[in-house]
């Protein structure tokens, strides 16, 4: 052996001018030890961590997803198709789409307005405002429905007035829409506020000095800069709007064919032990979830 | 268009950015606002542009009060420190922006002609279809300038235009700006903390400190006849003798033997600096640092090295009146 | 006198419009309805309020909701760190797909998750049938509640830790290695402290989400009072019995917990931002 066995490693000065040092492990036996970067765990640890992560995800993510489709198709295609083309299912789909079609645009306009005010101007209480906007995110869905029952239910604040005018909000479609608006309230704003704060206001100032008016500045300068963040927020907002269960459950009257969204319809089918039908309808929402994830991935790459 | 700034003050909370600033800028001048970083000069520029409002005082353009005129109607060109190019538009679209948002837009052909003309002026017409992130810092700066010139402003304002660029690009762009100004002849005000830049480019320099104007004058005037110690110190290296007398390094002489009115000092360091040599000394009495610039021949004639004892005397000394309270 | 018009906030337009609309919408949709809970609760006297929320059944539901959420968030914190680590540091086939799937609990409607989990852990389900002979019941027990809460909290920890891990300077670990630390020491002394704030934030987010969760839990829990009844379900039960005051009393407690958590989380994030700016 050329190297002295007493020294565990050799320092090799590559080049006096470059002055770089290289640590090398000399072969100390028949086979040299595997080289690995200073920043890597031993292979065994890596394997274990990877296995643990995949097992955890497999158990908690993929298994439930697989179960949805498995249970949906358990009784065969005919039962599946019958379930998703049933009149009640159609009504539920329509109501779900309606709630989303109202909630998403409203909350998008709100999100843009809030982000504009917060990101481009200075005023006191900004952090309080941001925290307030986050409120629906942290409130239990059941409470999100409860508050509208308290306001518009028969015993609620406006209950008597509504009854006198023969208007129904709770246990009717308007209540469902309201609850959906509430639970999806912050999604677009949460996406746009940090984005627009990071982008600053210099481009808008430049546009103004160049002679642009208010709307011109917004359409030509701001909107193109935020379009991917906006789309991302809309996608998340929509997914939540269509999938909301707890809040809608409280305000709906669970009236079949009238005040049931897709998630509520699933619940009804399930409670009647029509499992295959319940999972069939659920699979529609699961597919929507997968589409949402795909869209999210796509937009994330562009942001 | 001339600019009159009258008694302008502006505070941000407790920080007074501008303190009773008054200034007259002649039509067609190229003026530099010079001061160390963060001392209110950008604020003054933004007030002229209409991006901020003064707490007190007025800004007039050619005698007319501009305080109630909105920024978009002031017809000033503003070049931001970090360019503020519209990241999602091509270079062409960036420069065309001011022409597109006008109330009485020109035809598409006319806009295209003007944009191409401007891009040729800044010698970047070949980049018209690129995006800002594909350009170097120096190129972005020139495009920002072209964009602001598109609307034919009467006044051009530049906020530390070369601050974010490296030294060589800075030097080139300085000369280029001077030539551009000579060609376009718009009243131009630019903000900088680099005294070399101000001296090289401007017709007149406004030296500011802590929100106040210390001196206004041509580069020669402020360098040869500084009004205050601050101006003197800011515009070049200084030595202070006996707590009162200022002298520049090249105004200081070294002797091997003691001569009249000279100070004993030890040579600490000899550093070649291009054509001259900078000698750093420490005064024997008190230990103050003295910097002397000698030509190479003079240094060789003197024959001093680090550690030698020498005698220092300023050829001439400038003293300032203490400021009245 | 010139300049009277000039005292505006900024040269950019639309401030009053944007802020006005924001505040109006916020008040109508969020603040006023939320206040209804507190107003209704005030119809109870303070002792009445305390009485309502300290009945055995209510306390049991709080214990379950908060307790299971705590444990679920803890599980998610540990495994979330492992998952985030693996996603950021290792390369393996299908990584991008798995990375995207981590958001499934975000995107999947809670009711769908609820029935799917129940199907798996019921005595005749894929996993339930394996555990049954061992005497372990998951579905229709508090354990089932725990499983559901782990599911919905999963992305919170992973997504909070990932960016922090991605931004870690590799030089730090190199430095530790050259100073003689082994991999575990480097992890414990260099990496863990750096991600600790994100871990805490992720934990708090997962906990907050779990406490109020309804849809994914309601199917797999047994919903038996005193045993496997979560607080949100109790609210609904009381509503159906027209015990509005009782329902709002429970809701008030949960809302207060939510606010405290929200403030805590915002404070954590503000603190970490401040730290970034000064380093």
Structure characterization notes:
The complex is a heterotrimer of chains A (about 300), B (about 325) and C (about 280). Chain A is mainly α and about 300 residues long. Chain A has 13 helices and two strands. Chain A has a two-stranded antiparallel ribbon. The longest helix of chain A has about 35 residues, at about 85-120. Chain A is globular, with a radius of gyration of 29 Å. Chain B is of the alpha+beta class and about 325 residues long. The mean pLDDT of chain B is about 90. Chain B starts with a strand and ends in an 11-residue tail after the last strand. In chain B, helix 2 packs across helix 3, helix 2 (about 90-100) packs parallel to helix 4 and helix 3 (about 110-120) crosses helix 4 (about 135-150). In chain B, the strands form four sheets. Chain B has a six-stranded mixed sheet with strand order 6-7-8-3-9-10, with helices on both faces. In chain B, strands 13-17-14-15-16 form a five-stranded antiparallel sheet. A four-stranded antiparallel sheet of chain B has the order 2-1-4-5, with helices on one face. Chain C is about 75% helix and about 0% strand. Chain C is built from 13 helices and no strands. Chains A and C meet through helix 1, helix 3, helix 4, helix 5 and helix 7 of A and helix 1, helix 3, helix 4, helix 5 and helix 6 of C.
């Amino acid at each position: 052996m050329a190297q002295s066995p007493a020294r565990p490693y050799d320092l090799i000065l590559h080049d006096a001018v470059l002055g770089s040092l290289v640590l090398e492990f000399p072969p100390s036996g028949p086979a040299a030890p595997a080289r690995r970067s200073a920043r890597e765990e031993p292979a065994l640890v890596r394997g274990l961590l990877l296995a643990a992560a995949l097992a955890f995800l497999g158990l908690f993510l993929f298994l439930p997803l697989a179960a949805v489709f498995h249970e949906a198709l358990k009784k065969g295609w005919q039962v599946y198709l019958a379930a998703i083309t049933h009149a009640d299912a159609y009504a539920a789909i329509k109501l779900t789409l309606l709630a989303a079609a109202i909630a998403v645009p409203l909350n998008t306009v709100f999100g843009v307005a809030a982000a504009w005010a917060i990101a481009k101007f200075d005023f006191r209480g900004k952090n309080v405002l941001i925290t307030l906007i986050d409120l629906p995110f942290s409130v239990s869905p059941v409470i999100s429905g409860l508050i509208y029952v308290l306001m518009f239910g028969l015993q609620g604040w406006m209950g008597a007035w509504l009854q006198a005018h023969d208007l129904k909000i709770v246990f009717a479609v308007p209540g469902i829409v309201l609850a959906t608006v509430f639970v999806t309230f912050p999604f677009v704003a949460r996406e746009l506020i940090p984005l627009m704060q990071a982008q600053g206001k210099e481009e808008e100032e430049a546009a103004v000095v160049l002679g642009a008016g208010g709307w011109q500045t917004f359409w030509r300068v701001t909107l193109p800069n935020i379009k991917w963040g906006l789309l991302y927020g809309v996608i998340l907002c929509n997914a939540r709007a269509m999938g909301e269960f707890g809040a809608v459950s409280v305000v709906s009257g669970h009236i079949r064919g009238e005040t049931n969204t897709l998630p509520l319809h699933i619940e009804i089918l399930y409670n009647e032990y029509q499992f295959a039908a319940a999972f069939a309808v659920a699979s529609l929402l699961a597919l929507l979830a997968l589409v949402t994830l795909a869209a999210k991935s796509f937009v994330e790459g562009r942001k | 268009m001339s600019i009159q700034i009258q008694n302008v003050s502006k505070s941000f909370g407790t920080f007074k950015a501008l303190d009773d600033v008054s200034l007259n800028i002649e039509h067609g001048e190229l003026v530099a606002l010079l001061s160390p970083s963060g001392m209110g000069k950008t604020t003054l520029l933004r007030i002229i542009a209409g991006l901020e409002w003064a707490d007190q005082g007025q800004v007039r353009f050619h005698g007319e009060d501009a305080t109630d005129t909105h920024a978009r109607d002031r017809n000033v060109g503003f070049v931001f420190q970090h360019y503020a190019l519209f990241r999602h538009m091509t270079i062409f679209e960036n420069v065309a922006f001011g022409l597109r948002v006008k109330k009485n837009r020109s035809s598409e052909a006319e806009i295209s002609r003007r944009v191409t003309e401007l891009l040729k002026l800044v010698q970047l017409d070949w980049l018209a279809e690129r995006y800002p992130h594909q350009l170097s810092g120096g190129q972005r700066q020139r495009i920002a300038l072209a964009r602001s010139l598109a609307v034919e402003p009467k006044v051009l304002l530049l906020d530390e235009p070369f601050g974010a660029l490296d030294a060589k690009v800075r030097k080139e762009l300085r000369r280029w700006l001077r030539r551009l100004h000579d060609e376009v002849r718009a009243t131009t005000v630019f903000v900088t903390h680099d005294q070399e830049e101000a001296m090289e480019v401007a017709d007149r320099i406004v030296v500011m400190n802590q929100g106040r104007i210390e001196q206004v004058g041509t580069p020669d005037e402020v360098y040869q006849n500084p009004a205050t110690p601050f101006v003197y110190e800011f515009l070049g290296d200084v030595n202070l003798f006996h707590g009162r007398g200022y002298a520049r390094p090249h105004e200081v002489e070294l002797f091997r033997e003691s001569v009249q009115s000279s100070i004993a000092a030890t040579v600490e360091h000899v550093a070649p600096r291009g054509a001259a040599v900078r000698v750093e000394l420490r005064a024997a009495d008190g230990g103050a640092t003295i910097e002397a610039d000698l030509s190479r021949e003079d240094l060789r004639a003197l024959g001093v090295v680090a550690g030698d004892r020498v005698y220092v005397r300023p050829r001439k000394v400038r003293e300032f009146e203490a400021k009245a309270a | 006198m010139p300049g009277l018009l000039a005292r505006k906030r900024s040269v950019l337009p639309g401030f009053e419009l944007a802020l006005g609309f924001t505040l109006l919408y916020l008040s109508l949709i969020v603040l006023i309805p939320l206040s209804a809970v507190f107003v209704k609760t005030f119809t109870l006297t303070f002792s009445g309020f305390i009485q309502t929320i300290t009945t055995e059944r209510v306390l049991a539901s709080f214990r379950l909701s908060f307790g299971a959420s705590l444990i679920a968030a803890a599980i998610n914190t540990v495994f979330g760190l492992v998952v985030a680590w693996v996603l950021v540091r290792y390369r393996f086939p299908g990584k991008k797909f798995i990375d995207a799937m981590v958001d499934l609990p975000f995107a999947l409607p809670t009711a769908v998750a609820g029935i799917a989990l129940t199907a798996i852990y019921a005595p005749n389900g894929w996993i339930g049938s394996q555990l049954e002979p061992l005497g372990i019941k998951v579905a229709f027990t508090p354990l089932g509640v725990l499983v559901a809460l782990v599911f919905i909290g999963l992305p919170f920890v992973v997504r909070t830790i990932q960016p922090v891990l991605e931004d870690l300077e590799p030089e730090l670990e190199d430095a530790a290695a050259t100073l003689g630390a082994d991999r575990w020491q480097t992890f414990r002394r260099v990496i863990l402290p750096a991600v600790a704030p994100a871990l805490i934030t992720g934990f708090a987010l997962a906990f907050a989400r779990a406490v109020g969760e309804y849809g994914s839990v309601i199917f797999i829990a047994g919903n038996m009072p005193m045993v496997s009844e979560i607080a949100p379900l109790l609210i609904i039960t009381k509503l159906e019995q027209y015990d509005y005051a009782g329902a709002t009393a429970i809701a008030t407690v949960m809302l207060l917990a939510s606010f405290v958590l929200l403030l805590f989380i915002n404070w954590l994030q503000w603190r970490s931002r401040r730290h970034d700016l000064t380093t």
